[in-house]
Design goal:
Order of helices and strands: EEEEHEHEEHHHHHHH
CATH class of the largest domain: Mainly Alpha
Strand content: 5-15%
Low-confidence stretches: 1-7, 14-23
Number of domains: 2
CATH topology of the largest domain: Glutathione S-transferase Yfyf (Class Pi), Chain A, domain 2
Helix content: 40-55%
Mean pLDDT: 91
Structural class: alpha+beta
Distance between the termini: 16 Å
């Protein structure tokens, strides 16, 4: 299925993207509210106070879907010139728009934020994702895959403890792209750890646990969470129909 049945949602703001003759161009965010990567981009848009339209999009491998997303994945950002795919690329593109910066202007500091985001994605999110089927959807994941994920997650969280500053944010004193990856990837990995391995991955990183609690209290984070909760029943029904 390409587009969900519910109508798109528009978030208005006093802060507009770059204009052209006739007015500003509304950004369009394609995806679905249960996707953690979609929610990273959604939170960035909200924190930057950019107006955007949510376009429900489950992607897939149909020609229609692949015309929007070359690999058939979400999220995708629609802009005046066309479509931008891949979360990290979208987040970097958004730094060209008005609003609070989520990446430092200093090249070295910027590289540190991007490195932290990439480490969370590669060494925490991806190993945890291999176990999502069992942790969240009642499926069975082979023991060999779970054991591989278990080992990789231990190393991934050790890397986060070494590299993260948590002062109080992941990369330092201000909210950044690294915090988006932390919020929407580490939280899921912690559920995997608790449900499948009986481990609290943040137990030995108290500053990270404190940051997670801090982020969850942000108004825009709560807004995104409420939208996710509202969309979950439809998403679970879709997953069940494919079993």
């Amino acid at each position: 299925m390409l587009l969900a049945s519910r109508l798109s949602r528009i978030y208005k703001s006093s802060c507009q993207p770059r204009t052209r003759p006739g007015g500003y161009v509304m950004l369009k965010l394609y995806g679905f509210a249960v996707s953690n990567y979609y929610n990273m981009v959604k939170l960035a848009l909200l924190e930057k106070d950019l107006p955007f339209e949510e376009v429900p999009f489950y992607a897939g491998q149909s020609p229609e879907a692949l015309a929007i997303s070359p690999r058939g994945k979400v999220p995708v950002l629609g802009v005046e010139q066309g479509f931008i795919n891949e979360t990290s690329v979208i987040l970097e593109y958004l730094e060209s728009q008005p609003g609070p910066a989520l990446l430092p202007s200093d090249p070295f500091a910027r590289a540190q934020v991007l490195a932290l985001a990439k480490e969370i994605e590669l060494y925490i999110e991806l190993p945890a994702r291999a176990c999502y089927g069992e942790a969240f959807f009642g499926m069975t994941v082979p023991e060999a895959i779970k054991e591989k994920s278990r080992n990789e997650l231990v190393q991934g969280f050790a890397s986060l403890a070494r590299h993260g500053k948590f002062a109080p944010y992941v990369a330092g004193s201000s909210l950044s792209v690294a915090d988006l990856y932390f919020l929407y990837s580490v939280s899921l990995a912690c559920v995997v750890g608790q449900k499948l391995f009986g481990v609290d991955y943040l137990a030995e990183i108290p500053a990270a646990k404190a940051l997670m609690a801090r982020l969850e209290q942000m108004p825009n984070v709560q807004r995104v969470a409420a939208d996710k909760d509202a969309a979950m029943p439809q998403f679970l029904a879709m997953i069940a129909s494919k079993k």
